[in-house]
Specification:
The chain is about 65% helix and about 5% strand. It is mainly alpha-helical.
Length: about 210
């Protein structure tokens, strides 16, 4: 009798627990996507900083172009007059052009290394601040998961455009930083290139082949 009472009690407790589990609301997920790298670059601070960086290295880029133009000019001259030169003169001019090419390559590599490192440091510092804004925005809006679609290889196969919060993050960061938008770039003959467009949320990306 006692055993039956214990079993009945346990069964009743299990049914009660089961019923309680069934009546508990199931948590719903609210998911968003963001082109994080684009968001960082499109903030007013990002556009200002990267514009300043481009201006900083513009003289060295112009110098590289001048070096390349000189090499092209000397190469054409050698090709045009090579048959009228002595073998020694022709070899000397060819050697001079080759030395200039090597120097151009070294200078270009140095610029690429220095500029790339400074750009990466600038991006990392700004990305950290933009991430803090993104985290706060996601919490305020009740998002349980935010996926980055900046990377070329990302796991997102489909996302509605309405889930893309890139522009919202840019606006929220600009508001917090208080940095005004940089002046618009003057239009050129080929048309001015404004800020890069945010990468849209993918609509139907085929799985990568294995």
């Amino acid at each position: 009798m006692m055993r039956s009472l214990v079993i009945a009690t346990l069964l009743a407790s299990g049914m009660v627990l089961g019923a309680a589990a069934q009546t508990q609301p199931i948590a719903t997920s609210k998911i968003a996507v963001v082109a994080f790298q684009v968001a960082v670059a499109q903030t007013n601070e990002g556009e200002r900083n990267f514009s300043d960086l481009k201006k900083k290295y513009a003289p060295r880029e112009a110098q590289l172009k001048a070096q390349d133009d000189e090499i092209q000019s000397l190469t054409k001259q050698l090709q045009a007059t090579g048959t009228t030169l002595s073998e020694a003169d022709r070899a000397g001019k060819a050697r001079s052009i080759d030395d200039k090419k090597k120097k151009l390559q070294r200078d270009a590599d140095d610029l690429r290394t220095q500029g790339g490192q400074e750009a990466q440091e600038m991006y990392s510092a700004l990305a950290s601040k933009v991430y803090d804004v993104l985290a706060g925005y996601a919490q305020q809006q009740g998002y349980t998961l935010v996926l980055d679609i900046s990377q070329q290889q990302n796991p997102i196969l489909f996302a509605l455009p309405s889930t893309d919060i890139t522009k919202s993050i840019v606006a929220a960061y600009n508001l917090k930083s208080g940095i005004p938008a940089p002046p618009a770039a003057p239009a050129t003959a080929a048309g001015s290139a404004a800020r890069p467009a945010a990468k849209p949320a993918p609509t139907a990306k085929a799985p990568a082949a294995h």
